Amino acid sequence: xxxxxxxxxxxxxxxxxxxxxFAQKIFKPGKDICKLGKQIDDxxxxxxxxxxxxxxxxxxxxxAHSSYDLEKEIILKEDDVLKVDLGVSLDGYITDSSQTIIxxxxxxxxxxxxxxxxxxxxxxxxxxYKSAKIKDIGKIVQETIKSYGFKPISNLTGHFxxxxxxxxxxxxxxxxxxxxxxxxxxxxxxxxxxxxxxGSGFVxxxxxxxxxxxxxxxxxxxxxxxxxxxxxxxxQNRPFSEYWVGKDMSSFSRKFALRELLKSEIIGAYPVLVDxxxxxxxQAETTFIITKDGLIDLVGIDNI
Length: 304
Hints:
This protein is α+β, with helices and mostly antiparallel strands. The chain has two domains: about 5-205 and about 275-304, Creatine Amidinohydrolase, CATH 3.90.230.10; about 205-270, Arc Repressor Mutant, subunit A (Orthogonal Bundle). Helices cover about 30% and strands about 30% of the residues. It is built from six helices and 16 strands. The chain has helices at about 5-25, 35-45, 110-125, 135-145, 225-235, 250-265; strands at about 50, 55-60, 60-65, 80-90, 95-100, 150, 155-160, 165-175, 190, 195, 205-215, 240, 265-275, 280-285, 285-290, 295. The two termini are about 25 Å apart. The relative contact order is 0.19.
């Protein structure tokens, strides 16, 4: 990457950091996370950037892809474990980061297991940025989380990012693996994303869908669906929320139009990912880039 691209990523990371600090201020027991979720997306826009996806607000056994539903009310409770996973896009250059917010001390070890896994990964990369391999990080994350008595989630991974592409290859597993690619062989930035769980260590798709993605253009007859499709194309392949489109439509018309687009496979969906009922999941994540001078933590999640 050239200096201009790296500076855009650094600015994106600064906005991510500020957005996480904002999240810490507003998410409290007794508050409705649906209304507050929209505030996070609005805050990113106010900073001169764009949400790379609708902010993920995943509770308890939810691991990823949950977000805000403005037609519902979800009140935070003292015992909840809330994952805030947000992306900031600045001219298509994306930083991806997450934190776990807790209110009950009984969840401190769970939260610490992922923050420590991320911190240990960062330290290793700083010391070995020229030679570090993807399999090194998988081993570090797994061993760290298991040392706290929890399980890493085996089918959720970190990933590389490229311009306007949230999940580029290769993936960065959170468990022991044999992927021998060196991080320094890639020009792109990348996100390390440990997940720890008190449950099974494996997530499945739930029934709830709050986030969508554009797949391809096809003819569609429904007038509202056509209108929404044009809006979707302006997002440059970034995942989107129902509440980002069709704002002048009724809820029924918007939902019907989205259903038509799904049925025609013009858009796809991101179902909420869940571990077993009654379990708790924590998450920590930041975005890095390796330059000739070493590793840069673009978000600085350690200081949140």
